[in-house]
Task: structure prediction
Amino acid sequence: MMTYENLAPSQGHPDALSSEANLALVGDIGGTNARFGLVDLSGDPLAVIDAESFVGREFPQPGDAIRAYLDRRGLSAPLASAVIAVAGPVQNEQIRFTNSQWTLSAADLRAMGFGQARLINDYAALAMAAPLLSGADLRTLGPDLPSGPGQNLAVLGPGTGFGVAALAHDDLGSATLATEGGHMSFAPGDAVEIEILRILMRSYPRVSIERILCGRGLSELHQTLQLIEGKVGPPIAQEIITANALAGDPECLATILRFCAILGSVAGDMALGYGARGGVFVAGGIPPLFIEILAASDFRKRFEAKGRFADYMAGIPTRLIMRRHAALLGAARVLDALNKTA
Result:
């Protein structure tokens, strides 16, 4: 059985690998960033190397970012295969990104010269990577609980949008569940959140989880909390809210704490929905910005606050994914499966 090594920095020109015919591309393209790495299919253990991140808005389409990555490594010949994790639902081997104007299809990748091509949801890739993570790859949120093998797990997180996926197990095997759970309806957890919902419904006929738990949502949450306090002002960018909260500003800190509490409630709902006894993994670009605030917040309290199922929830571990480019590991697992069936 192949294992997956740590992502390594650039190891020099790919001539050091066996040949370009054995090289494959893995990618993770979100609403803000595009990340890529290489896999040598002849390697054992299978390793993702040369991981690099690009700013998405600098490229007209994702194919341009892929070409830029390959050009930087002097790769012009067609590669064996490509597996790209993408932010949004993959339908008929193609995607129109939820939070950008980009589009991409497996046919596009094959036209670029990849022998095999597969698109997968980015959070599905994270769900596949989660069982491979350990030690410094993770930060425990709440009690340090064991996660037994063969149990369902869920991955979710706020970034440009809000992603959700699960890895399910039964006696017949395992399956990755790519979902659009971030677009489920927001459920208030207390009187303040009922008022948040009432205010947001003045502007939006339906308030989803992603309306609050994402980068733009953090800004909107802050403005809404200000309105509840009777304060009116222009919206504040998420970066400023985070920086001010870390500096001790009480109003911005209150917004971050509310964000973490809502995240805990949503994580608990997803644990119930997927029977994720193997753990809930928090990902996304936003939580690592305020790790200590998250760890000290009501996240875990709200995660467990599920009425008659509080004891059930208390046994489920919650962890923050700290590893950079973790979705590339999940893409490599799909690549491994493709390579075995080719």
The radius of gyration is 21 Å. The longest helix spans residues 250-274. Confidence is low (pLDDT under 50) at residues 1-18. The first strand starts at residue 23 and ends at 29.
